[in-house]
């Protein structure tokens, strides 16, 4: 398994659940501005690779493995630089926005149940 990114959740913003209901999860590295921290999962990167994940690779949140379906043109650059990416739970074969990674559809409550301070999130080859 080739690891692209590994990070530890430090905080979950109070609006993360609402965004997840709409099919979006925003990750932002430590030091996110307060207005972004409210809508994001802030995290502390542990391992970062410049190599972007590809469709078919996996995002894991704790023990929940989610298949990546598309990677936007600038999504991985932002992830490497500042730990920021939007995960879109649409299962789309192409990303709607350049800073987005599309993933398979997973119920919001399933994802939310895995998010807690100390949880590990990874992006890795399948």
UniProtKB/TrEMBL annotation:
GO terms for biological process: phosphoenolpyruvate-dependent sugar phosphotransferase system. The modification Phosphohistidine is found at residue 43. Pfam families: PTSIIA_gutA (PF03829). GO terms for molecular function: kinase activity; protein-N(PI)-phosphohistidine-sugar phosphotransferase activity. It comes from the Bacteria. One of its GO terms (cellular component) is cytoplasm. InterPro entries: PTS_IIA_glucitol/sorbitol-sp (IPR004716), PTS_IIA_glucitol/sorbitol_sf (IPR036665). This is PTS glucitol/sorbitol transporter subunit IIA. It comes from Methyloraptor flagellatus.
């Amino acid at each position: 398994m080739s690891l692209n990114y590994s990070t530890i959740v430090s905080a979950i913003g109070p609006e993360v659940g609402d965004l997840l209901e709409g099919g979006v999860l925003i990750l932002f590295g430590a030091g996110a501005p307060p207005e972004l921290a409210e809508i994001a999962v802030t995290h502390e990167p542990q391992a970062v690779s410049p190599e972007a994940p590809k469709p078919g690779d996996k995002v894991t949140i704790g023990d929940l493995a989610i298949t990546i379906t598309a990677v936007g043109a600038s999504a991985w650059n932002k992830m490497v630089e500042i730990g920021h990416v939007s995960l879109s739970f649409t299962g789309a074969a192409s990303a709607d926005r350049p800073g987005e990674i599309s993933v398979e559809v997973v119920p919001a409550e399933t994802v939310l149940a895995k998010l807690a301070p100390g949880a590990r999130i990874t992006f890795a080859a399948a």
